[in-house]
Design a protein that fits this description.
With 396 residues, this protein is mainly beta. It is 7% helix and 23% strand. The protein contains three helices and 27 strands. The N and C termini lie far apart (84 Å).
Length: 396
């Protein structure tokens, strides 16, 4: 005779393994102890103590509010294509859930949907334009493998925050924004690939990713937000490409192993404390002559490099740093005072060589015998070698 079941009616029934409905009931039915609407298009409640993996079949198009929350017995989950939306906190606190696969045309995964699923190791979202809400995987401390939906537009706020086992991530070109604190506290994260096309990294996105060693920031990103890499204590190499216009407050604060940073010509402003606490930094090269530089507490022996008469030179004098004027070649690693400064500039001006990377010549890189001979050949004005192989990769 029951025709109505209120919200959270079976909440916190931790030992409940089966919900049974009499066949004559006009509103509800059950299958293997799981509560459904009569036509089985809505899965209303999965018993919290029911053990094992579960398939949500294609005929299910709706989940009841918190239908799977706190289901400690659930170990695996397949969602088979009929479902279009996963609500807020829908699978939160399923502490023994280890693997999730989502198929079909999932439109949205709500905020905190899988939050604190501390055993979750693998999730595959085999769909296209799925929107994923804030903190959807917050605190999934065992998560190591993630397959994101194709055409994902945004990595929302706190998406993987506290996922302390996550080691690598590729942010696809379809993503326009990496939200604030998206990877904050991912202490095992070693490798991040940001594809060309990503447009924004918001505040504290990679804060305290203490295993991250190298990062390349494509020129499609307009601004590196406040505190984005703050506390990334093992970060040693940062490449910032032309197109980035600003470096936010505390962006690299506390990156204690960061060695050298080249700020490209496109950057117009470096925010307060952007490099405070970067105690291993040998030099900071600012290629834009008019770039506004706010104060960062850098070691006294950190050299500031830039063009003579630039804002970088004024900053160095005001803050007690050695200033290294760059040679006319325009490479951050070829200071004017270097013995090879004029030869490098001559080689560039005569089309003999280019840099190895934007703004770098790599003067300490080892030359092989064939590379040296090729340089001499070109310097003597001889014709291009007949070989189809170019022994020195930066020759024009």
């Amino acid at each position: 005779s029951v025709t109505s079941i209120g919200s959270y009616a079976f909440e916190a029934c931790e030992s409940l393994q089966s919900i049974n409905v009499e066949p004559e009931n006009s509103a509800f039915c059950s299958e293997a102890g799981v509560l459904f609407s009569k036509d089985k298009t809505e899965l209303i409640r999965y018993p919290e103590g029911k053990a094992g993996r579960y398939d949500i079949r294609a005929e299910v198009i709706k989940l009841g509010e918190h239908a799977f929350r706190n289901c400690s017995g659930l170990t695996g989950l397949d969602i088979r294509g009929g479902l279009r939306q996963i609500g807020e906190k829908q699978f939160a606190d399923c502490r023994n859930l280890r693997r999730v696969s989502i198929y079909g045309d999932m439109e949205s995964i709500g905020a905190l949907a899988f939050a604190d699923c501390v055993s979750l190791e693998n999730i595959e979202i085999l769909s296209h334009k799925t929107e994923i809400g804030a903190e959807a995987f917050l605190g999934c401390s065992s998560l190591t493998e993630v397959l994101l939906p194709t055409d994902l537009k945004n990595m929302s706020t706190g998406l993987f925050k506290g996922c302390t086992s996550l080691k690598k991530m590729t942010i696809p070109s379809s993503v326009t924004t990496v939200g604030s604190s998206a990877f904050s506290g991912c202490t095992a994260l070693e490798r991040v690939g940001i594809e060309l096309g990503v447009q924004g990294i918001e505040s504290r996105a990679f804060e305290n990713c203490s295993s991250l060693k190298k990062i390349e920031i494509p020129g499609t990103i307009s601004t590196i937000g406040a505190g984005v890499f703050e506390g990334c204590s093992n970060l040693t190499d940062v490449t910032i490409y032309d197109g980035v216009t600003g470096i936010g407050e505390s962006a690299f604060e506390g990156c204690t192993n960061l060695r050298n940073v080249i700020v490209p010509k496109s950057v117009k402003e470096i925010g307060p404390r952007a490099f405070t606490g970067c105690v291993s930094m040998d030099y900071l090269a600012v290629m834009n002559e008019t770039c506004r530089i706010s104060f960062s507490e850098l070691p006294a022996d950190t050299e500031i490099r830039g063009s003579s008469g630039s804002a970088a030179e004024a900053y160095a004098k005001e803050n007690g740093h050695v200033f290294g004027a760059l040679s006319r070649a325009g490479f951050a690693d070829v200071p004017e005072k270097a013995f090879y400064g004029d030869p490098v500039a001559w080689a560039v001006e005569n089309g003999i060589t280019n840099g190895t990377e934007p703004y770098t010549f790599s003067p300490d890189q080892t030359c092989t015998r064939d590379q040296v001979v090729t340089f001499l050949w070109r310097a003597a004005g001889e014709p291009e070698p007949k070989s189809t192989q170019t022994p020195f990769t930066d020759l024009k």
